[in-house]
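I have been asked to look over a protein record a colleague put together. Alongside the sequence sits a line of tokens, each denoting a local backbone shape. Please read both lines and tell me whether the tokens look consistent with the sequence. I do not need a full report, just your reasoning and any doubts. I have pasted the whole thing underneath without changing anything.
>
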Amino acid sequence: MDFSFADAPLDRAEHLRTDSDALARLWPDARVLVLDAKGDAGVDAQGMPPGLDGTAVGKRPASAVFLGLHDGQGWFAVPAIDAPGRLEMSATISLRDAAAQWPVREASAFAQARAVLHWRDRHRYCGACSAPLDYVRAGWLGRCTGCGIEHYPRTDPAVIVAVSDGRRLLLGRQAAWAPGRYSTLAGFVEPGETLEQTVVREVFEESAVRVTGCRYLASQPWPFPASLMLGFLADASPDTPRVNDELEDARWFEAGDIELALRDAHPHLSLSPRLSISRWLIAQWYAQQVGGPPPQQSLSPARAG
């Protein structure tokens, strides 16, 4: 996929999460990502993953999370606060920046690490009885020390939708965004709701445009902090968009405007960065309209893994 965090995943090797002997054997030669309290990762002088292994880190902290395997090598994530003092975080990188600069596999592993460590950091106590959680299964399960309830990492599903009336594309913008920036509409799935129902509801809530049909295309992990974006193309009536307090503006755009924006050549319209599935959905809609590939985008892709 031509967006971040969806390619070159690790083999999560779930069966090893309860095998303490196997994890101990993997640790000395393992790749280790160290993340600070903000969720940023340590980097070398070139802003790249520093190539830390378990031997360099020292004894495996109890808080280390087993991410998975690649070519038989274990990958782990460790909170900086629990890493040995000699591993000073003199330079860090955000996940958004790493998505553009790091190799694909490292960026995807960073996204995985950030999501699970964020969950761990914000779920230290049981929501039922308030007792502390004891993390087991290599960091993927929090077991309450009081009532015994098991807590698993949370992922919030959200739809993100390229809406078309057959000729134009509907895009919206939030007031906090840079002038001229527009994106596809998106929203979280509510309890008891299908994805298709969410598409219809969210598009109407944000723009008063009526969706008549939709189809799923692809998904993207979005650990900001813990979402899964489910991408759709939707058909809609050519209604006049009307916004509420969620958006500052929503409007229809012609294919010519979208072509220029995908080339980063439109004087008044800019799109989401290439790391997001939003831009990919827009490109898919444009390709469908013109019956050919999307125009060449100026942003360079993440480095091949």
